[in-house]
Amino acid sequence: MRTSEQWTSKIGFILASAGAAIGLGAIWKFPNVVATSGGGAFFVVFLLFTCGIGLPLLLAEFAIGRSTGKEAVSAYKDLAPNSKWHLVGYLGMATCTLLLSFYSVVGGWIVLYFLRSLSGQLIHAGEEYSAIFQATTSEPLWSVGSQALFMLLTILVVARGVKGGIERASRIMMPGLFVLFVILIIRSLTLPGMEAGLEYFLKPDFSRLDGEAILYALGQSFFSLSVGGSCMVTYSSYVNRNEPIGKPALSVVGLNLMTSLMAGLAIFPALFAAGMKPVEGPGLLFITLPAMFEKLPYGSIFIAVFLALFLFATLTSAFSLLEIVVAAFSKGDAVRRKRATWTCGIVIFLLGVPSALSFGMQELSFGGKTVFEWADFAVSNVMLPIGVILIAVFVGYRFPKERLKQEWNAIAPRWKKGLVLYMFLLRYILPVIVLIVFLNGMNWLPF
Predict the structure, then answer these.
(1) Rounded distance, CA 7 to CA 10, Å?
(2) Is residue 2 very low, low, confident or very high in pLDDT (cuts 50, 70, 90)?
(3) What is the pTM of this model?
(4) If we measure between CA atoms, which residue out of 324, 307, 372, 270 comes closest to residue 70?
């Protein structure tokens, strides 16, 4: 039996799926990697990998979800009854639970900084922003309290269901995200001295395109589309059986690539115009950007815009991470859904408390990493790659052939022979590529 939840339109599905894929990584890490790994040369490689690797994997999750109309665990049970394949669904739930537990910590910091920007208490002349960030993350009350607020926002949206919660929020947040990007890009590209930043980000330099950069591009080609955790299985289960899924998949890929490009255009010209060096990760958002906007006219306004953009991207990803867990427990029942959302949300919040506290308590560090860093390592380097490999093998070998043909007709109805190429990719090429990324992440490659 298909779930009673459904997207109200194709655009709703696309915006929600794009929101799930467009997270912090696309904004605060990817642009810097592009710039330091060959600029336009790296972006071309990443584009090819995303279309050749990420897109087929995204279509695999879409096919599983749309074919069954069920959340992740039940979908695998439907397609492969009397087998252990449903454990892939449970792996996805575990992955998303752990990911949201520490992702919500960063989301909390963004909420806190956004509220400070609105009150005018964030940027001041001569402020030491690294000290402010360290004080914020090491203070238990601020760190845990902001994490709780972020989880509360996520829970309130997901509890309202697919139509009234996730889709409605995505219809506001995703267009809002791109509008904010356009505002920031226009501002960035009109600053004196911005040309150096534009060149740094986009100028092709194949001499910097080394093996490490190519392996990163391989990994990001599927991580950036939010595949591996079965989030897209759950989201695509809410698609009407009569709706094609090929164009929505291409739209999600296109929006994701455009976001990474827009992030670079908004950040690097402004950084160079302010005479600052580019960084990545938390240092970019919480230290470098406040210092940069302090030097620019109307900086207090534009830092608030930037933080709103980050908050939108973080929340839309968080919705999908919580949804896969809630959907597995609620089974489409509206009453059970609200209870499951609050229960799962509170449990995930409690799981994330050690990550929130690990920046101020040495006791929560071991093996050279904090709890936050270990959770990030487990998800990014172990759980997601394993999930991707299993999904590729499942669709390549275990997905019922007739049902897969039906799904392919919904993807590329005019290219029936493409299914042969698609199966070859899933069976022989993609698992090997992802295995290489996994071994690299674990530092197990001999080269």
Answers:
(1) 7
(2) low
(3) 0.93
(4) 324
Residue 348 CA to residue 322 CA, distance in Å, equals 9
What is residue 412's three-state secondary structure? coil
Per the structure block, which two tokens stand in for 278?
A: 């580019």
Give me the amino acid identity at 152: L
Q: How many CA atoms lie within 13 A of 65 on its CB side?
A: 32
CA torsion sign for 74, 78, 79, 83 is positive
Cα distance between residue 413 and residue 111, in whole Å:
44
Tokens of 120: 């005018």
Q: Tell me which of 193-202, 211-220, 377-386 is least confident.
A: 211-220
Residue 427, both tokens:
């069976």
How far is 97 from 350, CA to CA, in rounded Å? 11
DSSP structure string for 333-387: -HHHHHHHHHHHHHHHHHHHHHHHHTTT-GGGEETTEEHHHHHHHIIIIIIHHHH
Find the mean pLDDT for residues 132-161: 94
Distance between CA 337 and CA 159 in Å, rounded? Answer: 7
Q: Kindly state the helix (H) or strand (E) to which residue 156 belongs, with its residue range.
A: helix 140-159
Contacts of 86 (CB under 8 A, 6+ apart): 73, 74, 76, 77, 80
pLDDT digits (tens, 9 = 90+) for 43-68: 899 999 999 999 999 999 999 999 99
Name, in order, each residue with C-beta under 8 angstroms of 382's C-beta and a sequence gap of 6 or more: 438, 441, 442
Q: Is-contact 337 330, C-beta < 8 A?
A: yes
Cα–Cα distance measured from residue 442 to residue 207, given in angstroms and rounded to the nearest whole number:
26
Separation between Cα atoms, residue 115 and residue 122, nearest integer Å: 9
Long-range CB pairs of 209-216 (<8 Å, 24+ gap) are 209/37, 209/38, 209/41, 209/42, 209/45, 210/37, 211/447, 212/37, 213/33, 213/37, 213/38, 213/42, 213/45, 214/45, 215/436, 215/437, 215/440, 216/33, 216/37
Q: What is the pLDDT of residues 359-401, one digit of tens each?
A: 877 777 788 899 999 999 999 999 999 999 999 999 999 999 9
User: pLDDT tens for residues 418-440?
Assistant: 899 999 999 999 999 999 989 98
Backbone angles phi, psi at 5, to 5 degrees: -75, 140
CA atoms within 13 A on the CB side of 343: 12
For residue 3, the model assigns a pLDDT of 62
Residue 365 pairs in a beta bridge with 370
Considering Cα of 245, then 78, then 50, then 36, what sign does the dihedral take?
A: positive
